[in-house]
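Researcher: Before we compare anything, I want clean individual predictions. No alignment, no superposition, just each chain on its own. First chain goes here; please echo the sequence and then give the structure tokens.
Model: Echoing the first chain and its structure:
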Amino acid sequence: MNIQSLVTAAALTAVCLLSLPLRGHSANESTIDTRVKLTDASRAAPDFVGIDSWLNSSPLKIADLRGKIVLIDFWTYGCYNCVNTLPYVTRLYDNYKDKGLVVIGIHTPEFPFERSTGNVKAALKRHGIQYPVAQDNEYATWNAYRNRYWPAQYIVDQSGKIVFEHAGEGQYEEIERKIQQLLNANS
């Protein structure tokens, strides 16, 4: 193999590697399309299992939320992409909490320091998060949802079925439209 072939092979390898999302992170959608979206997925939403602590709420169960629209947001406070989505998730909560939307944050740590309940509480205060947040330090709920990314949003309909999934930043308008559609079907 000549030098030009080696350089070309190295360049192609670099391009391929740069296009793959890192485990636990999805890149900005404007540069790399790593979105995972399954509208009408219609699989039953798993319950919240293995939760270390509930913040801003007593423990919740999916079965107790039937009849409501539920937005589940997997995040961790040390993830740049997660922090970028928090204003949108918080706005959805503020705008629709009195219309039948329940927002639940599932804080699943990427690093050991993110396991601290005190650190998570400080992050909730810093970002003005008032909706329920479950601390999923052992990845039990993460695994139950077969989640692979930070951040990731799941919308559960009134019957307890997952009808929308999204990983990464963006698609805020589409997420809101789906919530509005479900809320309008409920009224």
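Researcher: Okay. Second chain, same rules.
Model: Second chain and its structure:
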Amino acid sequence: MICKKSLTLVLVLAGCLLAAGTTFAADTKIGIMNVQKIIVTCAAGKAAKERVDSKMTEIKATFKEEEDALKALQDEIKKKSTAWSEEKKAEKVREYQKSGRELQAKTEDARFELKQMQDKELEPILKSLEKVVEKFGKDKGYTMILDAKNGVLYFDSAVDITDEVTKKLDEAMAGK
């Protein structure tokens, strides 16, 4: 995705372009959209969210039994520790700590798995969105389309100053 620095640069560029001349400014058309909202509200995004939520519910259910067993062991330690020998108490505490670490590791693995699933679900949606935005921008005559949160999604190559700025940077760096 596009970083906030690029959004700032684009906004500065857009301001400069608009200030550069009324002829160009009259032809400048900039659109702002909220990609996050599009993903959450489009049919494919809703279906992907349902699949991810279903997997999350399934994973949570598998952890419920382990969490309950860990809680039961904790309660047992609290209730019976005064009656146990120091050796038995230490053994139960180690067992509790080991089970807690194992559950925590499984939880982290599950989070990673869910994140991978979410990325896999979003990838085709984002690729399609990129094509749709590019076509929409060209068809509707936009100079730029910006994401409200992440920056440039489409721009007319006529406003791309990359090559010129690269030359100027090379010139500036040549003396150093």
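Researcher: What stands out in the second chain?
Model: The two ends are 33 Å apart (CA to CA). Additionally, The chain is about 75% helix and 5% strand.
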